[in-house]
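Deliverable D2.4 — example input (C-alpha cells):
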C-alpha cells in the first residue's frame, strides 16, 4: 500500500468515528432529556452524574463509532475496473441457480 493512500483512508475512518461519537452524544442526551426508563431522574439525583454520563457516552461512543465505520466501509462502491475478483456482485442467496444442473450418475 502506498503512503499517499494512507492519510485518505485514515481521514475516512476518523470522520466516520466522529459521526458515531456525535450520534452517541445525542443518544445520551435523549436518554437524559426524555427520562427514558427513569434514567434522567436517576442521574439527576446522583452525586457522580458527570462521571456516569461521561462513562456512558464514552462506551456508547465506541460502540456507535465502530458501527458507523463498519457501515461506511461496507457501503463503499466496488471497483470492478481492475479485473480482479469475479462473481456477479450480488449476495449468493440472490444468484440464480438451475435446479437440474447436477449431472445424474
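Example output (designed residues):
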Amino acid at each position: 500500500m502506498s503512503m499517499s493512500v494512507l492519510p485518505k483512508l485514515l481521514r475516512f475512518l476518523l470522520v466516520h468515528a466522529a459521526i458515531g461519537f456525535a450520534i452517541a452524544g445525542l443518544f445520551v442526551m435523549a436518554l437524559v432529556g426524555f427520562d427514558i426508563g427513569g434514567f434522567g431522574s436517576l442521574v439527576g439525583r446522583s452525586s457522580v452524574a458527570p462521571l456516569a454520563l461521561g462513562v456512558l457516552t464514552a462506551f456508547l461512543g465506541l460502540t456507535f463509532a465502530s458501527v458507523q465505520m463498519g457501515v461506511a466501509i461496507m457501503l463503499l462502491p466496488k471497483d470492478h475496473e481492475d479485473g480482479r475478483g469475479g462473481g456477479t456482485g450480488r449476495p449468493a442467496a440472490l444468484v440464480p441457480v438451475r435446479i437440474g444442473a447436477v449431472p445424474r450418475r
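The chain has a mean pLDDT of 82.
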